[in-house]
Specification:
Elements: H1 25-59, E1 61-62, E2 65-66, H2 71-99, H3 105-129, H4 141-153, H5 158-170
Helix pairs in contact: 1-2, 1-3, 1-4, 2-3, 3-4, 3-5
């Protein structure tokens, strides 16, 4: 959910500050944790879209056959399962790096950027596979698609993640 929160003339006593946090370290650490959560969370949305498309195409018939029996549908299902599992493997590897204390912020950017892209593509493809039902609330795909469009923007836009990755690759910061 996205909303606006405005605080005006708010004063806090010095005792309310975290003593171990200086400068932007606190907020940026929180931001990194949120991004990490998203890179894993979007895999769940993608998986749900894939599973919905699979069930729908197995149940829905056209010309006396399930939609899942058609070549183009099977191609789309194959693409979806590859993207979902590739994103899951990326999230797993990044989680292992985090558990080992070897995770860098540009790796989180890589995971969020790659997995949100993959999840959006899965959601968009799954929506087409459901035909007109893909834009109804009777199936979760369109809701996931709208949420993923939001995730693409918050906790750092794709462009910001690209700059973080670019700096890691080149050693040159381009944040201007």
């Amino acid at each position: 959910m996205t909303s606006e929160l405005v605080l005006e003339r708010v004063r806090l006593p010095e005792a309310a500050a975290f003593p171990e946090v200086r400068g932007l370290r606190g907020p940026l650490t929180c931001l990194g944790e949120a991004r990490f959560g998203m890179l894993a969370g979007v895999v769940g949305a993608a998986r749900n879209c894939y599973e919905t498309a699979l069930r729908y195409t197995l149940d829905r018939e056209q010309f006396g056959e399930p939609l899942a029996g058609f070549q183009l549908t099977q191609r789309k299902l194959a693409d979806l399962v590859v993207e979902v599992n590739r994103a899951a493997l990326g999230a797993l590897q990044i989680s292992r790096l985090k558990d080992a204390g070897r995770l860098h912020h540009h790796q989180v950017s890589f995971g969020k950027m790659a997995n949100v892209r993959a999840a959006l593509e899965v959601a968009r493809t799954a929506r087409t596979m459901l035909g007109g039902s893909g834009i109804t609330l009777g199936y979760p795909v369109f809701r996931h698609m709208a949420n993923l469009e939001t995730v693409l923007t918050y906790e750092g836009t794709e462009e910001m993640h690209a700059l973080s990755i670019g700096q890691a690759v080149t050693g040159i910061p381009a944040f201007r």
